[in-house]
Amino acid sequence: MYTPPFTISPRTIHLIADISALVERYAIRMEQEDALLLRKINRIKTIQGSLAIEGNTLSESQITDILDGKHIVAPIREIQEVRNAIKTYNSYHTFDPYSVDDLLIAHKIMTEALVDNTGHFRQGGVGVFAGTQLIHMAPPADRVPYLIKDLFEWLRKSDDHLLIKSCVFHYEFEFIHPFSDGNGRIGRLWQSLILGKLHPVFEHLPVENMVFANQQAYYNAINRSTDAVNSGIFIDFMLQEIYETLKKRQGDSIVTMKATKDVGINVGINEQKVLELLRKNNQITAKEIAGLLGISLRHSERLITSLKQKGMIQRVGSNKNGYWEIIV
User: Which domains does the chain carry?
Assistant: First the structure.
């Protein structure tokens, strides 16, 4: 049986233990009375994060509107990507993570009306570029079915911990790059499905948001693992992201949609405008907000600080590469 090359570091062992402890606490959180709404919110975060990694610019608010059947003004392709992702994640429980056929079905749903060969492995060569520089040339197309078959056989038969297997699968899948498009979205979905075999709470854990906030580190971990011919670096990176997401989500609380609509009662007019701008573009800077509202940079920064202090927004990731998360 083919075994992908990877090593388990002391850090890996510690992260597995820490994640296992947090999973049980998060499971209790997901049993509380507001859990249904929390699952919906986390599903939206998952979709937004996974698509944003691939360049989709739609916000959580816009995705919520699409989910609720509302009309939004946005690029047609990006709307289609969201609709496809919603349909794919709605089919989550129908997918067997050990089935190649289900992988192809998921790709067909995820890329409907977006690519010509939806639901089929690629027929030509593909490369991964950083600007104009080729950083990874995927294996030849005629090898893809055999490589995927071997990967799924290892996934089914390996005795390694599911946390490790999910990360190794994610890396190997991206290395093979079996489709002409949609590899990232499907790879992240499949890791979630594998983790779902470990514990059902992973279906509702928006790891993609944390990955999006650390997108460059995500690609660096993939590239460093490729250079090392060993996915150990990527395993540690993804386990750290899972751990951080679980730790952050322990105290999640739900603010009802009515409270969201009534936010203007407790927020000044300029703060409302800042919230609207953040909903449209969660990576907007204080300087850009100042320009759009016709106010000073210092005033813009004060408004953002006020919203943070009121618990209405929070920063996810670094100041340079992170984004704003709307809590209300």
Answer: 10-249 (1.10.3290.10), 257-326 (1.10.10.10)
